Amino acid sequence: MSLQPVSLPYLIPDMPPAEEVVPFLREIDGNRWYTNFGPLATRLNDQILRTHFTDDRVKLLLCSTGTAALELGLAALGLKPGARVLVPAFTFPASANAIQNCGFEPVFCDVDENSWVMTPDIALEAVSRANIDAVMPVAALGRPLSASQWDRFFEKTGLPVLIDAAAALGNQEVGRHILVAFSMHATKAFGIGEGGLLACQNDNVIARARRICNFGMDARGQVVGHGTNAKLSEYHAAVGLAQIARWPARQLKRARVDASYQAQMKTCSHLWVSQSFTDNESLGEKVLIPLPVRHNRSTMPVRLHAGIRVSVQSVQEQLAAQGIGTRLWYNPGLHRHPHWVACAQVCRAGESTLVTVDRLNDRLIGLPFHNFLTPQDITFIVGNLRQIVENKEYSASLSQ
Ligand SMILES: Cc1ncc(COP(=O)(O)O)c(C=O)c1O
């Protein structure tokens, strides 16, 4: 399959223009301090705390990538070699990469039909049937998870929890007991090029992660444990400081794009559902389900009803023919990647595979979502998608 060149790309990163970064680069020239927890990185750390978190007990460690943040978080948990980490298969490969890079074993599980994430209930069922040493819930596609629910999971099971919230910076809260990893990759809502963040409320965990991030050395330069180099350079911090100054304006742009999609969806009410359905509401006969969010969204994936007789690959091709770029998110599920097919899975009771992940992969398509989309672009995108699914006599197939 060859997709046509697109005129409406799936994603255009919204990075600060060079002139907004230059004042910070001049500071670096003046300081002659280029990395190793420098003054700009320290300032960015404080500003991110103030801008993106409401709880002043949260502590941060800035690092080189979101994957590094996951690795530092996992390594700081002090798990035994070969520890088994439960992770939903509906996620980006980095979640399982990080587990294996730390010498641990991923154990894949399913996700909830309505929220598309591993819930504490799914994890509880999995740990009752398999040996698990830690869990990594994923804020799939930027949808934040309930920090208090995962705190309760920890209190109940004693199993460490590290949330992969790569795309949820600004939306994901940090609980009392859980660790959270974020990405600041250029494609994320708060992008600085490459960068990551580990957040938690425990000073000792952050101190341990910081030591691991710096070759495992203590304050006297002695290596006292496992280490790597995952520090954030001052140059990336410079981009971050320029980016944080633009954050309110960027959030406004993003909210306008979201509102524009919502308005378009309303014009075809027989196809779309509202954003406001709750986690427990049945999907019923809804035909296109956008990712449910109550926060600033990061992505615009929609789920085609099982009754629509068209594959997501075909929808992708047909939209591409109109110049519309799309993404088949987390497709295939991690349990279907060649490198991971032999890994352990804990399926739901009575199932022999991760059925919900497979079903989502069959039905989910990410529409263009970025700050440069105009209302006209969105009318064009939604109109084309509507035509494709309407042509498939969805109402006839739904009533079967
Ligand atoms: C769910 C998830 N986890 C981890 C990562 C890795 O983040 P980074 O690219 O900053 O290493 C990503 C990147 O997109 C992601 O989507």
Describe the structure.
This protein has 400 residues and is an alpha/beta fold. The protein folds into two domains: 18-245, 3-Layer(aba) Sandwich (Aspartate Aminotransferase, domain 2); 247-398, Aspartate Aminotransferase, domain 1. The protein contains 13 helices and eleven strands. The chain has helices at residues 18-31, 39-52, 66-76, 94-101, 120-129, 147-157, 203-213, 234-245, 247-267, 312-321, 355-363, 375-390, 394-398; strands at residues 59-63, 84-88, 105-109, 134-135, 162-164, 179-183, 196-200, 288-290, 300-304, 344-346, 364-367. The strands form three sheets. It has a four-stranded mixed β-sheet with strand order 1-7-6-5. Residues 65-67, 91-92, 94-95, 138, 164, 166-167, 183, 185, 196 line the site of pyridoxal-5'-phosphate.
What share of the residues does DSSP label as strand, in percent? Answer: 5-15%
As a percent range, the share of helical residues equals: 25-40%
User: Number of helical runs?
Assistant: 13
CATH topology of the largest domain: Aspartate Aminotransferase, domain 2
User: How would you name the oligomeric state of the polypeptide chains in this document?
Assistant: single chain
Q: How many DSSP E strands? A: 11
How do the strands of the widest beta sheet line up side by side? 1-7-6-5
Task: Just give the CATH class of the largest domain.
Answer: Alpha Beta
What is the gyration radius calculated from CA atoms? Answer: 22 Å
The unreliable regions are 274-285, 393-400
Would you identify the CATH architecture of the largest domain? 3-Layer(aba) Sandwich
**Count of individual domains:** 2
Summarize model confidence as the mean pLDDT.
90
List all distinct small molecules, including ions and cofactors, that are bound in this structure.
Answer: pyridoxal-5'-phosphate
Give me the strand/helix succession. Answer: HHEHEHEHEHEEEHHHEEHEHEHH
Shape: globular
Our measurement of the CA-to-CA distance between the termini, rounded to an integer number of angstroms, reads 31 Å
State the secondary-structure class: alpha/beta
